[in-house]
Write a structure and sequence with these properties.
The protein is α/β, with parallel strands linked by helices and 381 residues long. Helix content is 33%, strand content 26%. The protein is built from ten helices and 17 strands. The strands form three sheets. It has a nine-stranded mixed sheet. Helix 1 packs across helix 9. It is globular and about 65 Å long. The two termini are 41 Å apart. The mean pLDDT is 97. Bound molecules: alpha-L-sorbopyranose (SOE). Alpha-L-sorbopyranose binds next to helix 8.
Length: 381
C-alpha cells in the first residue's frame, strides 16, 4: 500500500460500532483520501462478542481495556462509541496521549463536562470531530449551501422534530446493552441529549446560535427495573421534550422529540421559512429536499422536490450515477472522508468538540428551563 495509513482504534462495538466500521471500510473506495484508514483495533469488555465484531467487520486486533488501546503506538485515532458516561474519560486520556479523537454524540453528559473535554483536546491540538451524522445527508448539506448563498433571505422560522416509539412498553428495563439510554446515569438525559441533540446540531449549523429556550419535558413511565440492581427504580430521563427557541438571527423555533409517538421509528424532519424561500427535509425521504422559492414565475410557483442525487450535489459525484440514491449509512462514510481529509492537514472536521459543546449548552438550557418553567439563556462555547 503506497498511501500513508491512518490507524483507527475503536472503543465500543454496538450499533454505532457498526456504522463507523462500515464508514472506515468504504470511505476510500468512494473518496480520494489523502490517507488510508486501517481498522487496526477494536476495544470492548465482552471478549467473545468483541471477537465476533472484529471478525465480521475486519478489525485486525482487539483489546479489552481502552487504556491499553490508547497506550498502543500503532494507533493514530481513538474513535469513541461507548455510552455517554464514558466519553469524557476516554477522550481526555486519548487527547493527552496525542491521539486524534472521534467521539459519538452527544459529546458529554452535560456542558461542564464538555468544557473539560474541549479544554484538553484543544490543549493537545489534535484533530477531532463528533459524529453528528445528519449534517452529511447530501440533502441537508445542500440545504446548508442554499442558506449560505442567501437564497432563503432573512429567516423567520425553524421547525424540527425527531419522533420514535421504542420505549412505550413499561416492561423495558433501564440499563444494559441497548437500553442504557433509559438510564440517566449512563445517558445523562433522555430524548434531549439523544434525539434533540441531532436537531440542535443541524439547527446551529444551518441557522446559527440559539439565544434562549423555554421547554417542557415529561417522563411517562416513572419506574422501570434497573438491570444493575434488578429493582424497580425511578426513571430519571426525559421521555419527551418540546421547546421554543429564539435564535440570535431573530428567528423563532419549535423543537419536539419523543420516544412515545406510536408508529414513528425515526422521523426526523426540519423546515426553515425565509423571506424569499423555504426548505423542508424528512429523514424518511432523505435524498429529497423540498424547496419553495417565492421568486419563481407566479402561475408556476410551488414546492419543488429536489432529488439530491446528481453529480453536482454535495458528496453525490463520489457515488453511483445521477438519480441513484444513497442512505443512512453513507452519512458515516462522508463523515470519515471529511475527517481524514482534514486530519491529513492537521485540522479538525466539523462538528468539532467545540461545536458540539454549543449543542450541549442548548441541551443544558432546555433541561434547566423544563425544570424551572422559565425562559433560559443559552451559554455559548
Ligand atoms: C436512538 O434510538 C437512536 O439510535 C439515536 O441514538 C441515534 O443517534 C439516531 O440517529 C437514531 O436513533
Amino acid at each position: 500500500m503506497s498511501k500513508k495509513t491512518l490507524n483507527i482504534g475503536i472503543v465500543g462495538y454496538g450499533f454505532m460500532g457498526r456504522t463507523h466500521a462500515n464508514g472506515f471500510r468504504k470511505a476510500s473506495n468512494f473518496f480520494n483520501l489523502p490517507m488510508q484508514p486501517v481498522l487496526k483495533a477494536a476495544c470492548g469488555r465482552d471478549e467473545k462478542k468483541l471477537k465476533e465484531y472484529c471478525d465480521k467487520w475486519g478489525w485486525e486486533s482487539h483489546e479489552t481495556d481502552w487504556r491499553k488501546l490508547i497506550e498502543r503506538k500503532d494507533i493514530d485515532v481513538i474513535d469513541i462509541c461507548t455510552p455517554n458516561d464514558s466519553h469524557a474519560e476516554i477522550a481526555i486520556a486519548a487527547a493527552r496521549a496525542g491521539k486524534m479523537v472521534m467521539c459519538e454524540k452527544p459529546l458529554a453528559m452535560n456542558g461542564p463536562q464538555g468544557e473539560g473535554m474541549v479544554r484538553e483536546i484543544e490543549k493537545a491540538g489534535v484533530p477531532n470531530m463528533v459524529w453528528y451524522n445528519y449534517r452529511r445527508v447530501p440533502a441537508v448539506t445542500y440545504a446548508k449551501q442554499l442558506i449560505d448563498e442567501g437564497r432563503l433571505g432573512r429567516i423567520f422560522h425553524y421547525r424540527a422534530k425527531f419522533l420514535q416509539d421504542w420505549t412505550i412498553s413499561a416492561d423495558l428495563p433501564q440499563g444494559g446493552a441497548g437500553l442504557w439510554r433509559l438510564d440517566a446515569a449512563a445517558a445523562g438525559s433522555g430524548v434531549t441529549g439523544d434525539l434533540l441533540a441531532h436537531c440542535i446540531d443541524t439547527a446551529l449549523w444551518l441557522n446559527g446560535n440559539i439565544e434562549s429556550v423555554s421547554a417542557m419535558t415529561e417522563t411517562f413511565i416513572k419506574e422501570r427495573v434497573h438491570t444493575g440492581t434488578g429493582q424497580k427504580q425511578e426513571v430519571k430521563i426525559d421521555d419527551a421534550c418540546a421547546f421554543l427557541a429564539r435564535f440570535n438571527n431573530g428567528s423563532l423555533a419549535t423543537f419536539e422529540s419523543t420516544r412515545y409517538a406510536r408508529g414513528h421509528k425515526a422521523l426526523y424532519t426540519l423546515e426553515i421559512n425565509g423571506e424569499k424561500a423555504s426548505i423542508f427535509w424528512d429523514l424518511h425521504d432523505l435524498h429529497r429536499l423540498q424547496y419553495f422559492d417565492h421568486r419563481d414565475e407566479g402561475p408556476l410557483r410551488g414546492w419543488r422536490s429536489i432529488h439530491v442525487t446528481d453529480g453536482d450535489h454535495p458528496y453525490m459525484g463520489n457515488w453511483w450515477v445521477p438519480g441513484l440514491q444513497i442512505g443512512y449509512e453513507h452519512t458515516f462514510v462522508h463523515q470519515v472522508a471529511d475527517f481524514i481529509t482534514a486530519a491529513a492537514e492537521g485540522r479538525s472536521a466539523s462538528p468539532t468538540f467545540r461545536d458540539a459543546l454549543e449543542t450541549q449548552y442548548v441541551c443544558d438550557a432546555v433541561l434547566a428551563s423544563a425544570a424551572s418553567g422559565a425562559w433560559t439563556q443559552v451559554k455559548h462555547a
